[in-house]
Design goal:
binds calcium ion, Mannose-Binding Protein A, Chain A, about 15% helix
Length: about 270
Amino acid sequence: MEETCLLLILLLSGGLSTLPPHSREYHFVNQLMNWTEAQSYCRANFTDLVTIYNIDISQLLLSVSPRISTWAWIGLYNDRYSWKWSMEGKLFYVGSTHEFLIWANDQPDCLNANEYCVALQGQTQMNDRPCGDSYPFLCYNAKNTSYILVKESRSWSEAQSYCRTYHTDLTSIRSKEEKSNITLTLNGSGVQYVWIGLYRDPWAPWSDNTTSTFTNWAYSQPNNYNSVEYCGMFNLMTGEWADVFCGLRLYFFCFTGEVQNANTVRSCHHVKH
Ligand SMILES: [Ca+2]
Ligand SMILES: [Ca+2]
């Protein structure tokens, strides 16, 4: 195995959880693996696949790898099942299950890498849709346990603001009974898509469970071509990123070092078929 590594010392004042870890060693691994195999390899031999927090780390990766016209895996991936509810509060979800949350055929598909909010389609099944699309929406009012269909079309964020202002929040669906009540509310309304409170963050977290605000996508990326591209790769000539099929076999970058402590509890709800 051919491998190079370099130590990065970031001269940053400590303490803030939003800052990258102070020092990490970066390793270029000259072996071809798919994304999951690369992740396992990094976790077994180093710490994890790399997270790129800024342009300095990007330059560093270029400096420890050969300048060849190909791509390498980084810890970037787009988890189609990392859904969260707009309405927070653990107690609210005690005893809730998800088997009545049914995705429409071939959903979620994150079409064009642009679908991060969920609407009910045909009043019963879920579909991930572009958050900027305008649809009617369902608010939940906790005071009288009611569901309110607002027939004005709004973006998901606008709908969320509206529900938070006039009711409690965009609705969650916590039980079979709640699902039935929602179906009754929608019955006869004729709406095609209706926003509910489910959403997720694009391309977060990275493999090491941290998040980064830095992005360096190549032109027209990410595009989730054919709806099969959920892993991120790094161009060894330019440092730019593209989304691609996770089964591709590529070189990859690992790091050794501390993992940023997540001091905020992530309230992820894994909603699978
Ligand atoms: Ca979709
Ligand atoms: Ca792509």
